[in-house]
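Protocol step 4 of 5: obtain the predicted structure for the target chain.
Materials: sequence only (see below). No template structures provided, no constraints applied. The aim of this step is simply to have a reference model before the mutagenesis design in step 5. Sequence pasted as it appears in the construct record:
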Amino acid sequence: MNLKNTLLLFAKWLFICVLIGAFSGSASAFFLVSLEWVTQFREHHNWIIWLLPIGGLAIGLMYHFYGKEVVKGNNLLLEEYEKPQKTIPLKMAPLVLIGTLITHLFGGSAGREGTAVQMSGAIADQFKKPFNLNESDRKTLIILGISAGFASVFGTPLAGALFALEVLYFSKITYKSILLSFVVAYTAYFTVELWQVQHTHYHIPIVPQLSLIHFSWIIVAGVAFGLTAMLFSRSTLLWSKLFSKYIQDTPLRPFLGGLILVGGIYLIGNTKYIGLGIPTLVESFNSANSWYDFLLKILFTGFTLGAGFKGGEVTPLFFIGATLGSALSIVIPLPIALLAGMGFVAVFSGATHTPIACTIMGMELFGVESGTYIGIACIVAYYSSGSVGIYHSQIVKGSKYRLYQRFRRKDLQDF
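Step 4 output (structure tokens):
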């Protein structure tokens, strides 16, 4: 390929990245503003939680009649990357957007990453036909969609670019994909900035000098974070299987699930464990949480998503990890904010098998000073979280795969 063709190819992909980043960033900005509005409305009108079953029925009917092809969500993106079949329908974007807003408006416990990634993935995949791209290039489009969605919704472009590559376990990743993933992540990130949409900020004021004793406590905490990630992943899968087994009519699953959730919220007597849970998450950096906070969030989120409500898993994972880390500060002699920050990203690392991206995300959110603590915690959580993550279509490869093969003596994909 001569220099002219190389420059034209570079210009084409740069243009594609700018388009995907701009569209995905704008979609995420709209989503974040809308999500904040429905959250505030729910918090000021708690009576609306009683309508959660009706909201669940609306989501169930919407996907039953219009969204059967896209109901797999993030797993569809991973499947299309590994074994391309057909272009992801653009309707995935509005369906998951509406479904997630309904979930949060009426009090379901869910996140936002899945929504942003699905919207961006669907948007990115539409560029295959107008630019006459082949199947190999389509894999790059899916990477770009995941990168743009993650980077824009959390305000972490470095982590977003790496997450898109690592969640696919660098399977058949090209140097072109790596470069473009960073370009589209920053484009999406700055697009959200241009829309003047704010992200939540966190702070770790004290990071002690690393010592052998501190290292030992990081290992202990990392194992706890990994086991918690395993519990979350398996409980979400369990609830999904139970609903599928005992309730054949898919629209009824979120309706009946909503009834049970409303009962649970009423029995607990507060709304601490519904929605994103950002106030509790932020507070966990300042004061120790109750030991059961992370367990109740696992229960509410796993049940909400398993019943068929829409939204992501990642922000609940942040809540779970931060509140667990905060609670562990009672027995582990490390600063509470540091433990909360470690849990914030380490549980996410274990549940998604992405320790590199999570380490970078921790440094983007909390500062590079905490990078050593966060990196060790993410790696330990990754290795102690088992073989099943929140993305059931994710291909497990690398050293973790070989380690579990050695002890289990079977293919981890059978789990």
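Step 4 remarks: The chain is about 70% helix and 0% strand. The domain at 212-414 is CATH 1.10.3080.10 (Clc chloride channel).
Proceed to step 5.
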